[in-house]
Amino acid sequence: MSELKVRVRNIIEALLFVSDRPLSVEKISEIVNLSEAEVKQALDELANDYRRADRGIQLREVAGGYRLYSHPAYASYIEKLIMSFDHRRLTQAALETLAIIAYKQPVTRSDIAAIRGVNSDGVINTLLNRDLIKELGRQDSPGQPILYGTTNRFLESFGLRSLDELPPLDEFAPDEEVRKQIEQNLRSSALIE
User: Fold this and answer.
1) Which of helix, strand or coil describes residue 21?
2) Rounded Cα distance, 188 and 41, in Å
3) C-alpha R_g of the chain
4) Which helix (H) or strand (E) segment is 67 a member of?
5) Torsion angle of the four alpha carbons 56, 59, 61, 63, in this order, in degrees rounded to the nearest 10
6) With contact defined as beta carbons under 8 Å apart, do 109 and 144 qualify?
7) What is the fold, at CATH topology level, of the domain defined by 3-81?
8) Residue 57 bridge partners (DSSP)
């Protein structure tokens, strides 16, 4: 491999290392002043090198870009480190609300409240502040309520390339009695027919 190719790959690796979010091929191309095809080739070679060398990190394509992640085989060590940090986690209510938005988007505050059975305004504000959800626009109905959806930060946080990679809801299906209650709540809120 030529010295120039090695240098380009090293530069791309350094960019990925310092970035706090996925970098698109287009963005990397602008920075390194190479074609998108050349950048994509360098990214593919870099990802293959990580795989072949069985390294502690891997290069993954997520949320419309590329990002370095720790190797899943070392998750228990990473977990120990992260658990030693002082950080805020999402509450159960925030996770429930985020799941509703992810699977039902675009969705309004009143839709979320109808599904959860409680007011979710505070939780929605928390998710907005953490850049996990965003306003997508307004619903064409009386009062024109705000419609919410997930962000690229959501995809990144959950290691997804797109919403198509969300697991099917059937995997989390409750028992028949709970399912009937949920369907009744949804019907009463006019979210299903």
Assistant:
1) coil
2) 53
3) 21
4) strand 65-70
5) 70
6) no
7) Arc Repressor Mutant, subunit A (1.10.10)
8) 70
DSSP 107: B
For the segment 119-163, what is each residue's pLDDT rounded down to a tens digit? Answer: 889 999 999 998 999 999 999 999 899 999 999 989 988 888 999
pLDDT for position 173 = 60
Identify any residues that bridge with 70 across adjacent strands, giving them in sequence order: 57
Q: Considering the chain, what percentage of its residues have pLDDT values greater than 70?
A: 85
In CATH, what is the architecture of 92-188?
Orthogonal Bundle (1.10)
**Residue ranges of domains in the chain:** 3-81, 92-188
pLDDT band at 166 (very low <50, low <70, confident <90, very high): confident
The secondary structure element, H or E, covering residue 100 is helix 92-104
DSSP lists the bridge partners of residue 134 as 149
Q: Which two tokens stand for residue 137?
A: 């626009």
pLDDT digits (tens, 9 = 90+) for 179-189: 677 677 766 65
In eight-state DSSP terms, residue 171 is G
Residue type, 2: S
86 — pLDDT class (breaks 50, 70, 90): very low
